[in-house]
Design goal:
The chain has a single domain, classed as ABC transporter involved in vitamin B12 uptake, BtuC (Orthogonal Bundle). 77% of the residues lie in helices and 0% in strands. It has 15 helices and no strands. It starts with a helix and ends with a helix.
Amino acid sequence: MNNRYLFILLFLLLIGFFLLDILFGSVMISLRDFVVAFGEESIYREIIFNFRLPKALTAILTGAALSVAGLLMQTLFRNPLAGPDVLGVTAGASLGVSLMVMSAGVLPAFFAASGWGQILGAVVGSTFILLIVLAVSLRVKSAVSLLIIGIMFGSIVGSVVNILQSVSNPDALKIYIVWTFGSLGAVTWTFMKVMFPIVAVGLLLAFFLQKRLNAILLGEHYAQNLGVSIPQTRFLVILATSLLAGATTAFTGPIAFIGVAVPHLARGFFRTSDHRTLLPACMLCGGLLMLVCDLVSQLPGGGYTLPINSISALFGAPLIIWVIFRNKQL
């Protein structure tokens, strides 16, 4: 299929599942009630505009951000298993949240009641790890060494989080565990005003780097001969990835699988390694997959939803296996 038609198909599917995500839930909303909600006050208007719409937009933003971040990491490290969490940014966010939760007794009630406490902790934790990784990237020349260092940072931070969990009280531990499940519904319009600009900056930076990323695919020495500054490019890629992964983790919790899998889905569908095609393809595929996962997570009904983190892994892994076998047969 021509790439142009494939983009149109993915965009139409994205719009379709976006509407389904708004209509489907513990309270079913008909198309008639959906249209009427735009013109008059009703309970459906409250549900759509104050809960379902920000949740659906969060799904698209999160899917696009994590997918692009995964693509950047796989290109930079030339490792198909690299994802947005390899730099330890996600682990840093988890450390920040765990510290904030353990300190809930000494924090102002505003943070505990509004959810800003967990977000603040995630932002501070991910930023702290980001600054360390950026500083290391300026001194380490090898991308493989930087990858190993990032994984080690993640392991160290993960160990600290495990220690905090072992000494925490059951209530604080429950709050942290629930956060690790991931949630798209926790992002309100107030949170969206902070999340959207950060993700937008990260995506714009990724598009700015697309020609450099194509050059890196041919090898760092070849890229340097083309005039590409490898240290500067590496610094900007890490910055973009950290903005994308840090913002989504802070507001939705850690969501696994999307960042690693979607770039492979995009390559399988579009049959190209050109980042001018892959970047928008990852955004569409990632947003669409997160909307599908959000719909599946609500299947139990009755106001009960499954953890989005688990659904993203269970639902997406078979797609990757299918793409791999499909490419093998062609």
